[in-house]
Specification:
By secondary structure, this protein is mainly beta. The strands form two sheets. Strands 2, 4, 5, 6, 9, 10 and 11 form a seven-stranded mixed sheet that branches. Strand 7 and strand 8 form a beta hairpin. The radius of gyration is 14 Å and the shape is globular. The N and C termini lie far apart (39 Å). The model has no long low-confidence stretch (mean pLDDT 95).
Length: 129
């Protein structure tokens, strides 16, 4: 099973940018949908973005659309979430995730998060006002 480790979180002012990275090990990413979800204190998990393994189709939550970009580099077993124009409401623990192609749900379907079967321990993003 693929193991994932996030990095790149930190403290940033409103309007700033961060790039989160997710390093995978134990399996190739070639056949995995990959994505990011986040969880803020007292709130439900929110799927932020994903990119499919089959055709590169992407999903972006309405809350972040236009401000974030997801990308993957299968050769490096790494994928990224570039976040710009950050807002205080983006403050959350961000998790990277991966799901096998044989799963029930696939990116960019709205339920893609349910198809993720591996995820990291999270990296904290704090956006100050």
């Amino acid at each position: 099973q693929v193991q994932l480790v996030e990095s790149g979180g930190g403290l940033v002012q409103s309007g700033g940018s961060l790039r989160l990275s997710c390093a995978a090990s134990g399996s190739t990413l070639d056949y995995y949908d990959i994505g990011w979800f986040r969880q803020a204190p007292g709130k439900e998990r929110e799927g932020v973005s994903c990119i499919s393994s089959s055709d590169g189709s992407t999903y972006y939550a309405d809350s972040v659309k236009g401000r974030v970009t997801i990308s993957r580099d299968n050769a490096k077993s790494t994928f990224y979430l570039q976040m710009n124009s950050l807002k205080p409401e983006d403050t959350a623990v961000y998790y990277c995730a991966a799901g096998g192609f044989s799963g029930t749900y696939h990116c960019p379907e709205v339920n893609w998060l349910s198809g993720m079967d591996s995820w990291g321990k999270g990296t904290l993003v704090t956006v100050s006002s």
